[in-house]
Specification:
Strand content: 35-45%
Oligomer: single chain
Shape: elongated
Helix content: under 10%
Number of helices: 0
Structural class: mainly beta
């Protein structure tokens, strides 16, 4: 299913990975104590700017800052939209 969204300029749309629901020792983590994920998959990429070509591409797994981006919900799924500069690494 293709999304009907095209980020502008140097923005990137990311689908975050699901937050951990259980610790390594088997303890379940309640929703109120879950950490925000800092890893996700690039779903859509803007065209870049005239001074800056885009480095990431659709399908890349990336790490981003804990408070980076703006949360949005499309077709019942959670996404983040952020500038490419907020992405820390491609993994």
């Amino acid at each position: 299913m293709a999304l009907n969204i095209k980020p502008l300029s140097d923005r990137v749309l990311i689908e975050p990975v699901a937050a951990e629901t259980k610790t390594a020792s088997g303890i379940f983590i309640p929703d109120t104590a879950k950490e925000k994920p800092q890893k996700g998959t690039v779903v859509a990429v803007g065209n870049g700017t005239k001074d800056h070509a885009m480095t990431v591409k659709v399908g890349d797994s990336v790490l981003y800052g804990k408070y980076a981006g703006t949360e949005l919900k499309l077709d019942g799924k959670d996404y983040l939209i952020m500038r490419e500069d907020d992405i820390l690494a491609i993994i």
